[in-house]
Write a structure and sequence with these properties.
The chain contains 17 helices and eight strands. By secondary structure, the chain is mainly α. The longest helix is centred in the C-terminal third of the chain and has 25 residues.
């Protein structure tokens, strides 16, 4: 693969200024050789990469004079074309940008050939100081060797740099000051039931569907009638896109009677239209408000007359996992306001409020229930995991059963 031609950092002799020539235009950067001019050069290169659709795809830098910022600029261009899912940049690209920014902030002007494990650890320390969790730091740090591995394959950097970075092990639990994240626990059924009345009807049905199928939040959001096979008593749902599809794995979600009953009202639409739509939810909310209206129509705005002609944001055709979670959080906030108001009316101090939970905990709850009743292998199949050790994370062990057994034999 060819890469972007990186313009040189140059000296303008008559004025003593540094400049860079981008697409025929000279951009002055300040006094030559100063850190400020070097930083301005790095910014210019980053901007060139961000809008390099018409750039010449050849590289003039040699193996010895390539800087870290130049290497990162070329890798970022590659990543923008590689980490694409369903025609859109994948979430992984965000993490790549974050690590490239860290890399360039600390060592952008250094030669890529001189990047060492000690510098690699220095970047890791900035992530620790920023308060990130240990697993997330390890996830981010894996990006840096990947950058140099790609550079070695493109003959932009020596393979020895990549191999030296591989000697740095990930942070171990209990052997680092990096914080440990709290384990994700399955959400209690009582907490879900207390939240449901305060959610929009569509979001409440999404919660019920996920709880009874064990699917991922993203798989709930992208459900369409065309993705369903309703030929049998138990329906099957094949998502058009899923987490492990790049590994060549097929994902099938089985839908039993309870989940079918939730889904049926959403199937009376075009087969290509998403079942759970924020735009539809917004419309239902407006209709409910209009139905509950007490002011006569002759005294106030009629439906639709007080809306912006060109709103900055329009409801999307389907939920994302983030908007789905935000809707759940708003429902919990709404429920807690009702609890506080009721407590105040009855003179109760410090009422017990609902705790926050997120959509992925529903998947944990489903996996735990299946494992408790039918075993680990059944939970692995339902959750769609390739390995049982991954299922262990989602399906909590039934400690009550273990205690009961040990009470009999121990």
């Amino acid at each position: 693969m060819s890469v972007v031609r990186i313009p040189k950092y140059c000296l303008h002799s008559p004025t003593g200024q540094a400049y860079v020539r981008i697409r025929g235009c000279m951009h002055y950067l300040g006094k030559h050789g100063t850190p400020a001019s070097r930083e301005a050069y790095g910014r210019a290169i980053a901007e060139l990469t961000a809008s390099s659709a018409g750039a010449t795809r050849t590289c003039s830098a040699t193996l010895n004079d390539l800087t870290v910022v130049e290497l990162c600029a070329n890798y970022l261009r590659f990543a923008k074309g590689y980490y694409i899912k369903d025609g859109r940049p994948s979430d992984w690209l965000y993490h790549i940008r974050l690590m490239i920014t860290k890399l360039c902030d600390l060592y952008g002007r250094s030669a890529a050939a001189e990047f060492s494990p000690l510098k690699f650890k220095a970047i890791r320390q900035t992530l620790i100081d920023a308060g990130h969790s240990r697993p997330y730091i390890n996830k981010l740090m894996a990006i840096v060797p990947r950058v140099f591995k790609w550079a070695a394959a493109e003959e932009l950097a020596s393979a020895s740099v990549y191999h030296s970075l591989r000697t740095v092990e990930g942070l171990k639990k209990g052997r680092t000051v990096a914080r440990e994240p709290k384990p994700i626990k399955p959400v209690e059924e009582s907490l879900v039931e207390a939240t449901l009345p305060h959610l929009p009807q569509i979001v409440a049905d999404m919660v019920r569907f996920e709880r009874w199928t064990g699917c991922r939040p993203s798989e709930v959001c992208q459900l369409r009638p065309m993705d369903l096979d309703r030929s049998g008593e138990v329906w099957s749902y094949r998502p058009s896109s899923h987490k492990t599809e790049h590994h060549g794995r097929e994902r099938i979600i089985f839908i039993g009677p309870k989940a079918q009953a939730v889904l049926l009202p959403y199937l009376l639409r075009e087969t290509t239209v998403y079942c759970f739509s924020p735009a539809e939810s917004m419309q239902k909310m407006r209709e409910a408000r209009h139905a509950a209206r007490k002011t006569p129509l002759r005294y106030g705005n009629r439906p639709g007359t007080n809306r912006k002609a060109r709103p900055a944001r329009l409801p999307r055709t389907h939920y994302t996992k983030d908007s789905y979670n935000r809707a759940i959080q708003r429902g919990i906030d709404k429920a807690n306001k009702v609890i506080q108001k009721t407590a105040a009316e009855n003179g109760i101090e410090n009422p017990l409020l609902l705790g926050y939970w997120h959509a992925n905990q529903l998947r944990h709850a489903a996996g735990t229930e299946v494992r408790k009743t039918y075993g680990l292998e059944a939970a692995q199949v339902i959750l769609g995991h390739a390995r049982a050790d991954v299922t262990q994370v989602y399906a909590e062990r039934d400690q009550a059963l273990a205690a009961e057994i040990m009470g009999k034999i121990g």
